[in-house]
Amino acid sequence: MVGEVEETDPELRTGHAYTVQSKEVNPVLERLKKFSDWSRAVKAIARLKRCIKEFKGVQERTNKTTDLEERRDTEVFIIKLVQREAFTEEIQKIRSQKVNSLHKHNRLKKLNAFLDNSDVLRVGGRLSQSALHHHVKHPAILPKESHVSALLIKHYHQRVHHQGRGMTVNELRANGIWILGCRSMVSSHIYHCVKCRRYRKPTNVQQMAELPEERTKTAPPFTYCGVDCFGPFIVKEGRKEVKRYGLLFTCLCSRAVHIETLDDLSTDAFMNALRVLIAIRGPVRQLRCDQGTNFMGAKREFLKLMKDMDQEPQRAIGCEFVMNVPSASHMGGIWERQIRTVRSILTAMLDKFSNRLDTTSLRTLLYETMATINSRPLSVEYLNDALGPEPLTPNHILTMKSSVILPPPGQFCREDLYLNKRWRRVQFLANEFWQRWKREYLLNLQQRQKWQKVSRNLHINDIVILQDDNAPRCKWKLALVVETLKSPDGKVRKVKLKTSETTFDKGKP
Question: Which ranges carry the Integrase catalytic domain (predicted)?
Fold first, then answer.
């Protein structure tokens, strides 16, 4: 008898034991994984079965295509192969009439599964007394993980013309197919379906960007502003009817507006209106606008003018143009929203004048509209407080505006209100405006009203669909991302796209 072996025995050697399990793979199911279409897979397997019969001499050789009966038999054959591989244990218990021994959490327990005369595993269910067809009352059961299940979902999803999950699931069950976990599998297929993504996927949006510096720092009104045109308006000049347009400047920090009338949308008309703004409101350092032809022409004129200037002080008064990318009006929302306000006010005013307006009357109405908008409160603080301070409005700073570009040096306190030097009194009130502006208005801009979710950045070589409000979705064009432009926070909100016709910039929220 051998005694106990000590661990320190020099003849004792450490070894490793491995357990290997081999699983026989059905060659037909392996061949099916090479197919991406259910109909083609069934035809191929049906033709293979015919060739086997012809090789054994059971059937005469023929070059005819497979008929409907052969394809139906092949479908049943494939389903049985999948069931034998996925439900081996369950089928053995059902055959030995031990179905009650299935675990209560078994995926077939609730379906009351049984084997029919063709040895197909089907749903027992509760519809045996209904007038439905046998294969609809007792559909064949398929596992969720099978490639055959994915082919069937794709096939019936196409048959219902890429409708939603409910219609696809109903079509599967109406054709005698019950896939375990069908709804989640159909949802996954619809999510990855190219046609469904093209026709139904919402447009790509990115988290709302940080406010630009121009909107968060104190500066004289209209130092940084956005501009856009609106109209046209029909006015009478003598016996003729002509078109006139409005040009709206919005101060990016104080939210004040200035409106001018344009005879047309030419570069010269815009340049004259800009000169009027500078003469009335003071120098403009930065203009934000879209890529309208008149704005692009004005930008070229300014660049040419700056090139001709030799003296540095003259260059310092130049205006910088910041152009938004095409089809991205939301990037100019701060002035686009004011245009809607102007339209709503003008609609009520023009109702009194009908077609009797001339250019002078239109200009007067636009100035009255400007005064109304500049009287609106910037925040809701103190609106319902009769004893509180007067609500902050753009007019509080416009009426106190100094003619100098920058505020004069020095500190201004409340005692300056009682001095004889009016300029110090005015400057104190202006400082009061900016302090209230920071406290009551600026802090309210913290929240992102929409586009709160961070989305995946677009990358070069991504395929996208261009939204076109003037065309049905099936006519929207495909484009290739050729360049991405990142914002300071690292998120892509501007891209350069290439279509079959042209290359252009595109912006997203």
Answer: 216-402
